[in-house]
Amino acid sequence: MATKLPRVPVVIVGMGWAGGIIAAELTKAGIKVVGLERGKSRQTSDYYMVHDEVRYAQRYDLMQDLSKETVTFRNTEKVRALPMRTHGSFLLSEGLGGAGIHWNGQSFRFLPYDFEIYSKTVERYGKNKIPAGMTIQDWGITYNELEPYFDKYEKMAGISGEPEQNPMVGKRSNPFPTPAMKKTPAITLFEDASKKLGFHPYMMPSANLSANYTNPDGIARAACQYCAFCERFGCEYGAKADPVVTVIPVAEKTGNLEIRTYANVTRLLHNGSKATGVIYINPMTREEFEQPADVVILASYVFNNIRLLLHSKLGKPYNPADGTGIIGKNYAYQVQGGSAVGFYDDKEFNLYAGAGALGSEIDDFNGDNFDHADLNFIHGAGIRLSQTGLRPIANNSVPKGTPTWGKEFKQASIKYANRVLTIAPQGASMPWRHHYVDLDPTYKDAYGIPLVRITYDFEDQDRELVKFMSEKTKQIMQEMKPTTIGSSSQLAAYNIVPYQSTHNTGGVIMGADKATSAINNYLQMWDADNVFVVGASAFAHNSGYNPTGTVGALAYRAAEGVLKYVKEGGPLV
């Protein structure tokens, strides 16, 4: 039987970016908050002098133990879903700071088109442009309404970027708080080639600080050292913005935040219209606790937000057979494919150096920045050249035709270690009626709770997008004049391996209508007004960008909503 604890004003489930931002905003306003984190505590000193590619990049030290809890996957309902036994297509995090610890730091704003994708698509092309079964919808908020929250997130994190307004993206109220990162010879080569073709390259908005910075909360951090240990690693310098070095210290300083690590929330308690608290287990001792609360904020990863609601029977589960229900609907991923790889015999670059968000991007073919009238897809992709650092274990690119072993292979590996550049599109993922997340009827976790089941595959929309983008990446690469080029325009069926991106979205989607969304634009549940569900689970589709910047903006919006609810109560409209 669970030990019942004293009631608290607010409990937050998950202390990553979303939970950390909300904790900081609420505690600064004088509200007592309990933050529950399923994993252990983390701090910057944990990563001092730990540039260990085997431990972190290959053995996934910062990730969830899949032997205790995982997800199951299938391409269609016609096949049986099986558990993901090792980290592959995406990386599920655990510990204080969540995925905000091991992310790269690429911090984009979604486009104005994204937030009104249905209306703007129909307005320009007509309803017939949207294929049968595609379930895109407007998000219930516009870019202009969300822009102040983007600005607040970027100032908190110290996002580095170019000072001038990029014509391909949404208008900014303020410049980036810190300058763009250093422009390497490889990035300059990409930008020069893109400009010759009439495109609009710009330095990637980066949470890897380009300069020493003190944010509005008084948090001071040092500049990036370009060590190339970002993705899958914690930052030993604190230069990469993460919750542990930004928002969580602010909340702790108020004295109003209590963080409980090793607190794995298994159920949300409710009476049908309001939440009353949560149940959590200490995985080390197996003790079970009930934490009553006036307000419950689900701020864990996408799959866990969905799973908690489904297992707790709060909100109507999505039914793909008739399209009814919401929880689990509009799962979307990220479309990767169509890259161009250039090998140089006459140039050498320092590719072992870099940073997670060091790179340049063009958005000429992202969103609706180009005419789709004669194309068999909507939306698009950002096209980028990133210099994240080619760590030696994971990277060994050689030109096509090179033997796969022996003396020639070794010689080519050494020769091209710093002579290979990649231009990669990152494509938007549209939701479909038959793509969803539900509870697996067969497999359970270490506590006997059903795992979440993903039903997903790439569609013709995605294959057409990759074909189109592969021509653009090859065009830019040809202008960069490598000795040889490798490219691919084919997109195979989606598989849970190999790694592609950790950009899972949807399942608890936001909108203006209770019939088609689970939460409003404050991320407050329609079915329980004292529950807020924050994170990329709110996205009604996935854009051609990394999701974290938009997650951060929506978290600030949700924090404002919680403060209003605490003062006024009731649904926020």
From TrEMBL:
Presence of keyword Cytoplasm: no
Keywords: FAD, Flavoprotein, Oxidoreductase
Domain Glucose-methanol-choline oxidoreductase N-terminal: 223-332
SUPFAM superfamilies in alphabetical order: FAD-linked reductases, C-terminal domain (SSF54373), FAD/NAD(P)-binding domain (SSF51905)
Location of the Glucose-methanol-choline oxidoreductase C-terminal domain: 436-555
Family to which this protein belongs: Belongs to the GMC oxidoreductase family.
Protein name in UniProt: GMC family oxidoreductase
Organism from which the protein derives: Paenibacillus profundus
